[in-house]
Structure formats: C-alpha cells, structure tokens
Amino acid sequence: MKHLTKSILTSLLLIATVNVNATTISVTPSNQEVLIGNQVLLNIFYDTEGIETTGGAFSVNFDNNAFKFTGIEFDGSLPDDPLFRVFPVAANVNGSAFNLGFGSFSGINGTGKVATLTFMTEKEGLFDFFLAAPLPGDDSFAEGASYLNAQVQVNAVPLPAASWLLLSSFASLVAVRRRKHIA
Q: What global pTM score does this model have?
C-alpha cells in the first residue's frame, strides 16, 4: 500500500512538472584526501538557479571496490515533502550507483543542502564520485539539470610515530644484549 501511494504521488509530481527547470546538483568537498579505513562524508547541494522546481532524482556513481556506502542523512532544512524523497534501493547499495531525489508540489527555489552521504574507504588511489541522470526506476528533474562531481584521494595508512619509537627501542635492546654477550 505504501509503495502504491508513493508511485501515485510520483506520477502526480511528474504531471505537475510542465516547465523546463534548470537545477544544479553538486558534491562538496570537490576534492579531499583520506586514509584507507576512514570515512568519507560527501554533502549534496542543489541550486535551482532562480527557477522553481518540483524536484526529481539523480544517481550517485562511485567505485564500489574502493568505497562501501554506509549511510545517508537528508538535511533537516530541505524544503521538500519527505514522501517524495528517493532513498538508495537496498539492491543497489552494494553496486556502484544508486538514486537519490527530492521534490514538492509546492515547489522548491533557491539553494540548499540535500543530504550527507557516508562511505568507508577500502582501497588506495584517486577516485571520482559523479552525479548523473537517475538510474531506471526514478524520474529525473525536468530538462536542464546539471551535475558537479568530486574526487577523493585515498592514501595508505602511514606507520605512526609510536611504531618507529617501538622499533628503535627493540633495536636498542638487541644492541645492548649483543654488547653483554661479547664482553
């Protein structure tokens, strides 16, 4: 019943979307550096460029060998109807892309934060997170949506200074023991 209600409301939202809207969806920070095993937080923002929109969906694309999606938190000040929010489908969470979206019959205008996405890093390298038209199953913004992307540099975990201190202590103990053996 809940799925049917959402489908009907989404269909009505599409019918209400008659005007061409120009909306920019972006990711911040656009460049960041993290270590393997750390979290990556990506903030998704919208800018309707002064033209009111009823909303739509978009896809978040990433390298699923390097990142594991761990969560989403829609922003509390997002001026949409929560019934129109598109959450990641469980089947797609383990893949390399999933859909997000938001919308409202009363319209959305201006700029604001959509959500914060959380990923866990699993592989070293330079990787792109890019936004695009939605995967099949959800409806995009009316024509004119553009997307800004982000890059994440994942580095190997460096050996902490305490490890070097511990290794030098062992080397000192070995040297002292050898000196006692020789004498």
A: 0.73
